[in-house]
Amino acid sequence: MKVVAIASLLAATAIAAPTEMLEARQAVGNSASELENGACRPLILIFARGSTQPGNLGDLGSATCNQLKTAYGSTRVACQGVGGAYSASLAANILPEGTTSGAWDEAIRLFNLARSKCPNSKVVAGGYSQGAAVITASVRRLPAASKTNLAGIVMFGSTRTDEEGGRIPGYPAANTLNICASNDGVCDGGLDVSPGHSAYADDVPTAVSFLRGRVTAAGGI
């Protein structure tokens, strides 16, 4: 079923960037490596894009990043996309965990980097579609020390919703928000792409509000 649905997923990616996701003057575009290349900031966002999306953040990652920067100030938030071995290929969706081991290892590297480089920073994370599978697979494997400053996680249209019930094993459910539209066929585990899978731009404010709440609960920045 998943193999057959890959063609549908490919077709959907052509329309997966509705114009309302894109702000005319974004501070950060579809790529950001502010954790790797910049100084420590009070809040770090690690985000994994969806299949075939541009850059290392994709559209939803960019929107989440920019709304966090608007809320806290651009110099107080570092945005970091998951790139490297995570190529966001369509074929990876049919693997047992919905992505490759190289992808989740790259995300783990970034979480560990945030902890070792910026131990006083709060970390939030997110992922869209296959990117949510990357976040799920990496966080469940994180050492305990790298979870201590991980305040909250948001997922949009996760391909692991059916298998994991919108949760991440080994991470508090209260700190996790899984946003899956009722008309998003990907959320049932079959990769049956439907219009709802490309319509999460309007949910970004809800996701950012959730992350801000978790940061406040963790002591703020």
TrEMBL record:
Natural source organism: Cercospora berteroae
Organism domain of life: Eukaryota
Keyword Disulfide bond annotated: yes
Disulfide links within the chain: C40-C118, C180-C187
InterPro entries given in the database record: AB_hydrolase_fold, Cutinase/axe, CUTINASE_1, CUTINASE_2, Cutinase_monf
Protein name: Cutinase
Catalytic activity: cutin + H2O = cutin monomers
Gene Ontology cellular-component terms listed: extracellular region
Cell location: Secreted
Family from the record: Belongs to the cutinase family.
Function recorded in the entry: Catalyzes the hydrolysis of complex carboxylic polyesters found in the cell wall of plants. Degrades cutin, a macromolecule that forms the structure of the plant cuticle.
Keywords on record: Disulfide bond, Hydrolase, Secreted, Serine esterase, Signal
PROSITE patterns: CUTINASE_1, CUTINASE_2
GO molecular function: cutinase activity
Biological process according to GO: carbohydrate catabolic process
Active site residues of this protein: S129, D184, H197
Pfam families in UniProt: Cutinase
EC numbers: 3.1.1.74
